[in-house]
Structure formats: C-alpha cells, structure tokens
Amino acid sequence: MIRPAAPDDVPAILAMVRDLAEYERARHEVAATEPLLSAALFGEAPAVSALIAQDEETGEPVGFALWFLNFSTWLGRHGIYLEDLYVKPHARGAGHGRALLTRLAQIAVERGYGRVEWSVVDWNAPSIGFYKSLGALPQDEWTTFRLTGDALDRLGAPLPDAS
Question: Which residues are in the N-acetyltransferase domain (predicted)?
C-alpha cells in the first residue's frame, strides 16, 4: 500500500534515511532531525513531499520516497526529483520499490510533469539493475556537482561593503 506521508511518519522516515545512509556508507553525513524533516514536509511552506510504502498486514512503514519539484528549461515543464527511495531489507522483493516509483510516475503524468529523475551511487548494482528494468536510463554524460560545507559558506558569504 502506497500513501502520502503524514506528520506521524516523520520518525520512521528519519530512521529509514539513516538506514539508507548507512547502506551508502555515509551515515556520518546525516544531519537531519525530526523537526527539520517535519518542517520541510509539513511546515508552513512545505518544500518536499513523501510517499510511504506500508505493510498491508501490520501497517508498518517499510519504505519511502521523498521528492520535490524541479524544472526543465528544455521541456518547459516541472519534473519530479526523487531525493531518496528506500525499502527496508526485510520488505525488499515484495514490490514496494516498484509501487513507490509507479506512484511517482502517476503523479508526474497526472500533473503534466515532464520527467522523474534521481541519482544512484555507481556501485549499487542491484538498484541500477532494478531501475533499468523499469525503463529508466542512466544519464552517463552528466556529472553531478555539489557545493556544501566550507565551500558553500565561502561562495555564499556576503560581499564586502563597497562603500
């Protein structure tokens, strides 16, 4: 069962974010907190959306997809950027990942968005194979760049007063 996330899901989402980061060998990089996620998802001006994959028998959240809108100047339309997709190990193979991506594709089609896109670490062969089986194509000609930490602070620092 796939449903929109609710405020009560924030602790489960954060736990799964941490599990995903552990899998991606980057647990030390998780700075998110329940208040930060809650504000982003359900605050005054929500910036992101999330779907929950729920075990139909127990009601337990077993996976999530967290996404936000992006925009393609080439298409002249919004798209969905899937920030995270995660299914707990014990629930894998039951169709939850496919169901989450199917629902995202449905949202994109219903709203007239031009694409759904995401990144995957290059060593995650099981996920890459899964995505390709759905018809997703790797964008090998693109390199992702990121500004964060000290580099972001330096570039974003206020300019000295010219007066």
Answer: 1-158
